[in-house]
Transferase (Macleaya cordata), 358 residues
Amino acid sequence: MAMMMQTIYSFKSVDHSKGNESAAQVIRDALAKVLVYYYPFISEQGKLFVNCTGEGVVFVEAEANCTLDDIGDITRLDPPTHGKLVYENIPDPNNLQELLPRLLELLPLLMAQVSTLDLLSTNRLVFLQLHMQVTKFKCGGFVLGLCINHCMFDGIGAMEVMNSWGEVARGLPLTKPPFLDRSILKARNPPMVEFTHHGIVEVEDISNTLDIYNQEELVHKSFIFNSNKLEQLKAKAMEDGVLNKCTSFEALSAFVWRARTRALKWKPNQQTQLIFPVEGRSRFDPPLPEGYFGNGVVLTNSLCSAGELLENPMSFAVGVIQNSIRLVTNRYMRSVIDYYEVPRALLPSLYATFGIST
């Protein structure tokens, strides 16, 4: 979870000229108040932990020389435009050489994406928890861009923070105060790994996938699946009568998984893996308390050969995904937590793995 998640929120001006001049100050003042409730956490040394230093968070104000309409559909921004709306403190390339030894040392503890880092005098690698940027446009509208460390919370936690932030900005009390005790999800002593967690182990790449990435130009594309298209996918998945039900997520995930596998032209015996997070807050026994401020999701995985995935009807892929979701029980999630307490090798390459998140 040591990765930075970026989101943007767009706010148009009612009269297209004025009304939001003080937006940045209002947002900043409300942030200062809500952070009193959502303060960082400290855990044991020797693993990733949050050090509560009281130094605050990064807040940036910016002005654009265009209107919101000029940048088009904000839900389909290209990466360069998106990057101008979210502040991210990328380290100086000249300093990466001295950071590399520490990065290699910490690789077993970190997820694949590492960004927004610094090095303290104590030689610890530091991930800033929260960056935000308010960009004001000529039309009077503004965009709030957030860059949040996923170590802090999951999507539900992020939305609860945003709701609390908005309530404070309006002078209202918090309707859902955060539950800050993360010890309810601590590992058992001794750890009991009861399941094989394929999603975080190496899947051998026998199809030279890395060569494809190096030889082909990668382009950014967005595809919109409206309700009608999702219904068509679900009907396609159930047309052979194998499945009794199918959700939009299952149908779309199966469709994209198959499409990617076909595009990569993998060998039929190439193992292909789909990993995705499953909401676990309600699946724990007992369920996590309301307002739990942390990560209440767990990764599960679907694994089969490329030949099986493409030669069978779509219902096969959906069925594999459904089985992976059913696997996520209280026992399974506790096993995942314990697994992370057991020393293990470097993270897998993930070349034969496809990740989906909602």
Observations:
- The chain has a mean pLDDT of 81.
- The chain has two domains: 4-178, 209-355.
- The beta strands are 4-11, 58-63, 117-119, 125-127, 130-136, 142-149, 271-279, 297-305, 353-355.
- The radius of gyration is 22 Å.
